Amino acid sequence: MSFLQSTSNTAFFIALGIVVLLSGIGFGIVAWVGRLTGALRGREPVPINMLTEGYLLARGKASGRTLRAPLSGRPCVWWEMKVWERRIEIDRQASSDEPDRRASWTLLRHDVSRRPIHCTQGFVTCTVQPDGMTLTVPSEVRDWKGKQYPPENRDPPVQPGSAFSYRQVHDTGFTIVGGKLLGDRYRYVELLIASNAELFVLGRVERVAARAGAASTHDDAPAPEGESVAPFEQAQREENEDEQMSPSMREVQWRIAPEKGRPYIVATQPPEQWMATIKLASQGGLIVGTVTAALAAFMLWARYQGG
Length: 307
Prior knowledge:
28% of the residues lie in helices and 32% in strands. The protein folds into two domains: 1-44 and 273-307; 46-269, no CATH class. Helix 2 packs antiparallel against helix 4. It starts with a helix and ends with a helix. The protein has helices spanning 2-6, 9-40, 230-245, 271-304, and strands spanning 46-47, 54-63, 67-68, 75-76, 78-91, 100-112, 117-121, 124-128, 135-137, 140-146, 159-160, 175-177, 180-182, 186-193, 198-207, 252-257, 265-267.
């Protein structure tokens, strides 16, 4: 307690701010999971061919002309990708004569396909808008590393999707020799929804005119200057071709989109398969939030006790 009383105001409030931030993150996770579980509570999946207008949990099969994922080239109806680059940072404030060099990951690119997903049951098709998803549970996840971008290995191991498919923890398997980085320089993560995958979509269902969902606009972000864009040009070209070659044989009769103020979920697994994962995250968030909130209260008490 004497340390908390004697430290400078600047150091104390920086430490207190970090603790309060961690508490906020923990309770924020609890609130986020609470929104999802509340929205799904008591809802039974409604087949696409039995839809009515309203906020529903719809069920069907992913369909439509396939896209090519930009990193792996795999066929799919929806994709999301992230690429990180490991860069050397130099700390010139280090006490030694030689500057301290360390490697850290920097997000280089994040892209998502923008073509609506077709969800089909029998001869009824619904378009699922790809923007504004609160939670996405893909059918496939690829997470690998390499020395080039675009990746030299376009056939990495595949894993089933989950509610938390982005594993944000980066490994430290690298060496800096002579100021140069040895080892893998890039990390690639690609999430896919495969054609014919089962889809569970929670959102606002509305009836649309025939073939209204056949076309969509695309506004893919340009690649940063000097960056290779060949995989993304191919993916964009296929989306544009699909826009011109649609409509499909089935009439589009329904559309699912985000409902303002309510969760919008697109999953390739039924909720009971991934709800346990997010409930565990909620429990962890509650523990972190409670412990750090208690720590913040203790820090304030210890510093200002006795006036």
